[in-house]
């Protein structure tokens, strides 16, 4: 007897993938990260442990995939930043959204757990950069290049450095819980960055 | 029979404290952090496990104390930053030293291990802020206030924000291994910060 791997098979596979990623997200948000096990994720998703291990080698790989899936658009389009023609307005919108997202307790737990793994696992750090950080950075740089053409940003500015100055203070404040992530703080990072890299 | 707790006792206690902290530093630099145990630290230091537990409640507390001891001056003086009268020169000296320190493999391992604990332990994060980050920040702010008086920095600048813009990009680049920590990079962070917060 052979199984035909047709549309039904693909749909089942995708349903099981989604169930595993949802289960991983839910468990990481409920429990201390180190207490979450692949067994518990499998049980919550209603699949066998082997179904998980066929696709992901470790708990950190599943949690990373779960985070990655959150940033996939429903239509598979890549992320773009708003472009109203006014860089300060657009960046403040994005930075306020980022500050709000990092202040959200369930998201906080997920990204904090992943950060721990990334800080201690160079291979996962490389995968994080390639699959999540770099595509997001490219979307941001597209917006910055548009601002350079519009004369709102130094045409010689190093865009990697611009993004670091914009985001790293918020990231560090969040990671070390050293201050509040308010909309006013998000705005001040945009103002500082535009003063540093103005035309 | 009673023991007199005189100078000899104090000296012995201090010697045992130093032996424990050195052992903790050595082990964290040699092994994966999660494999370092309080037992191994005690064995390396030549003390009983109870001697450690009388002073520190956990492995992360010992490792934190070990890091803290590194920043103690021999004469117990608090840290100060150089003040030649030229803010850019002084900050570049400090930032180059910081970049060099974070690029040093044994220090990298110690501070990476501690960062993992801090990110996941709000109580340790608070202790880190109080005992290490805030005294260092105060030393840096003293230098920045001197620059404000000298007309080299906006007198209205939020000094916490200045320090974040100066240090957070380097911290994030180090944590995520997203770029090299060169002297030129250290200098560029100083230049960017002074453009953003110039008078």
From TrEMBL, chains A, B:
<dbReference type="Pfam" id="PF16859">
    <property type="entry name" value="TetR_C_11"/>
</dbReference>
<dbReference type="InterPro" id="IPR036271">
    <property type="entry name" value="Tet_transcr_reg_TetR-rel_C_sf"/>
</dbReference>
<dbReference type="InterPro" id="IPR009057">
    <property type="entry name" value="Homeodomain-like_sf"/>
</dbReference>
<dbReference type="InterPro" id="IPR011075">
    <property type="entry name" value="TetR_C"/>
</dbReference>
<keyword id="KW-0804">Transcription</keyword>
<dbReference type="InterPro" id="IPR001647">
    <property type="entry name" value="HTH_TetR"/>
</dbReference>
<dbReference type="Pfam" id="PF00440">
    <property type="entry name" value="TetR_N"/>
</dbReference>
<dbReference type="InterPro" id="IPR050109">
    <property type="entry name" value="HTH-type_TetR-like_transc_reg"/>
</dbReference>
<feature type="DNA-binding region" description="H-T-H motif">
    <location>
        <begin position="37"/>
        <end position="56"/>
    </location>
</feature>
<protein>
    <submittedName>
        <fullName>TetR/AcrR family transcriptional regulator</fullName>
    </submittedName>
</protein>
<keyword id="KW-0805">Transcription regulation</keyword>
<feature type="domain" description="HTH tetR-type">
    <location>
        <begin position="14"/>
        <end position="74"/>
    </location>
</feature>
<keyword id="KW-0238">DNA-binding</keyword>
């Amino acid at each position: 007897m052979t199984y035909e791997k047709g549309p039904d098979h693909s749909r089942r596979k995708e349903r099981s993938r989604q169930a595993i990623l949802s289960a991983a997200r839910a468990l990481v948000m409920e429990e201390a990260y180190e207490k979450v096990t692949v067994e518990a994720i499998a049980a919550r998703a209603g699949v066998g442990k082997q179904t998980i291990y066929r696709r992901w080698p470790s708990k950190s790989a599943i949690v990373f995939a779960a985070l990655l899936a959150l940033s996939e658009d429903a239509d598979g389009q890549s992320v773009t930043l708003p472009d109203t023609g006014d860089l300060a307005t657009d960046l403040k919108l994005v930075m306020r959204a980022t500050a709000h997202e990092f202040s959200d307790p369930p998201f906080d737990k997920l990204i904090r757990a992943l950060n721990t793994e990334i800080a201690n696992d160079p291979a996962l750090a490389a995968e994080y950069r390639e699959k999540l950080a770099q595509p997001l950075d490219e979307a941001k740089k597209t917006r910055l290049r548009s601002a350079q053409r519009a004369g709102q940003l130094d045409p010689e500015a190093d865009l990697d450095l611009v993004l670091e100055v914009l985001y790293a203070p918020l990231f560090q404040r969040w990671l070390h819980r050293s201050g509040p992530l308010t909309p006013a703080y998000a705005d001040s990072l945009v103002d500082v960055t535009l003063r540093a890299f103005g035309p």
